[in-house]
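Quality-control log, excerpt.
Job 1 of 2 completed; input and output follow.
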Amino acid sequence: MAAGQAGAAEPQAPAGALWQGELDGRVQVSLTIFPRAGTDGIDGTARYDSMLAAAPRQLDGQLTSDGRLSVRERAAGQAPVEYPEARDGARFEGTVSSDGLSVSGEWMNTDGTRRQALTLTRKAVYRERTVNVAGARLTERYPETGRPRVDAMITSLRASSCGRGEQECRSAIEVMRLDAGNVSLLRTTWRYSGGAHGSLDFMSGTWRRYGPAGAMASAPTVQLVYRRVGLADLLQPGEACLQKLNDELQAALKRQGAAEPARGVLDAQALQESRVPFTLYRGGVVLHYAPYAVGPFAQGAYQVAVPFARLGSCARPAGTGRDKSPEPNEKEST
């Protein structure tokens, strides 16, 4: 499948949105929400940057015509990690602002005994379109941030057509990290060429933002430069550090029940070429293994989060300090 700008059809109305905020001023919460057609029901995911963020938590809820948003984590047997409110049944209830750019409300635990004020800001809208290209049906969903350079990165991952011999393909790009220093995207593509089932694969893109040394991020004249980041850029060079990363990957794959965890390790060339798609969260890196990569198709895909803290001195974190999304007055350049 070719990557790049998808066809000339006009994008449809927004099909969803990415909302971000912080609990306690330290834990970033990201909600990706999609409406159910013809109802006020919604589905989506929640991510917490303080956690081993490989698996998002599934959400359902409502967004009413008068702007009341109510979401709840679905009970899926996911154990809480590090942050006590990130557990099955946690809820958020709030009101969308009149301009549609923020939601203010309360985040609460399962029984409502612990509540915290939370304001979410809309960071992106998701659009969706379906076109026929060379006899194949392509459906794609992709985010738009309104920031030219970030949207250009998104465009670079968009699908322009299905592959040779494919009858149908569905491509979805998700924002995995968006803050003052980093943009991390994951494209998931399902393809069908006939037979018992389709295939699934991942493509990722991560960029680090650079500015002039000593420049204030809030200054109107700051020039922002984004550069593509490879997996090797996150790890100190040398066999010892590569082995440390591989130990973490293999141990996590074993815990998740992968049939062939040894196939998930990287050699030096695979590291340099970023052969395994990866994305960032504020605490570390997530590697995404497609079906068949570390086991039979029936086992599905695997996501392995490796905290930078577990890599110790071998890590080269993609960002330091308190992150925030770029402000509108910050100029971008490439």
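Job 2 of 2 completed; input and output follow.
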Amino acid sequence: MHTPIHPRRRPWARLLAALLIAIAGAAPLAAPGSAPALGPAFAKTNVGEQDKDPAFDLALRARSPNQLVAAAARYENGDGVTQNTRKAVQLYCKAAAKGETQAAVRLGQIYAFGRGIYRDQDLAAAWFQAAAGKRDVIALRLLKVLKVEGKTKRETECLLDPPLPPAARFASRPHPAKGQVASLVRKLAPQYQLDPELVLALIEAESNFNPRALSPKNAQGLMQLIPATAERFGVRDAWDPEQNLRGGMAYLRWLLARFKGDVQLALAGYNAGEGAVERHGGIPPYAETRAYVSHIIARIN
């Protein structure tokens, strides 16, 4: 089902104002030098880009922390390149791994504001604490703004999307796809340039292969098309299995094109709506959507 979900709004405007005041009043950042690497502060990453960008690839190979931070700032602000926070995070992360305090501060600010990626205040605090450990003035001030007391239990990591919950039990279940539905999916999927196994996993998550499935939000059939989506993709009878499959596959192909082939973003869009993915700059931080994407990815893997 892909009815948009609207999470509870939080008072981020006040936090944003406080952070801006703290940044404006802080002393300039110390230049990188012989300070030891952040070590455990650079724990893990799930970053990665599918689009080709020779300039980014070249910047990512830089060895100098100064060069990495400068390139990251260009991508963060769209200075001479297409603005891309996800690429900026990759570059800042590499610089942070080399002990660059400014990179750790910038990562904290990105996660605190949620600019271009999902907002994660706990992860922001972890990065600020990594920089504060080296007596960075801005990081120390922002920790006070965030009202962080004591050492956060969160490890620093470079995430572009909210962490997905484990799905081992789901993945180990026998696949129920069989008979006419599976045959029809394998026949139709190539027409939409889709992997049949991806479509089957999506159908399992949506309707468990029940062509008469009806959700409380009026999503219908195998691929749980709401009436507006069915009409949008030319489905006259959502209860007809073949029409439902064609409409759902057309929508999934459209989402993959919209998100430049990113399967996880396309799945998130199918569940929560493409607008939610765009607003959050990645998989929306909704428990249902995160579990949905995790389950399907586990199944196809």
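Post-run check on job 2. Residues 168-300 form a domain with the Lysozyme fold (CATH 1.10.530.10).
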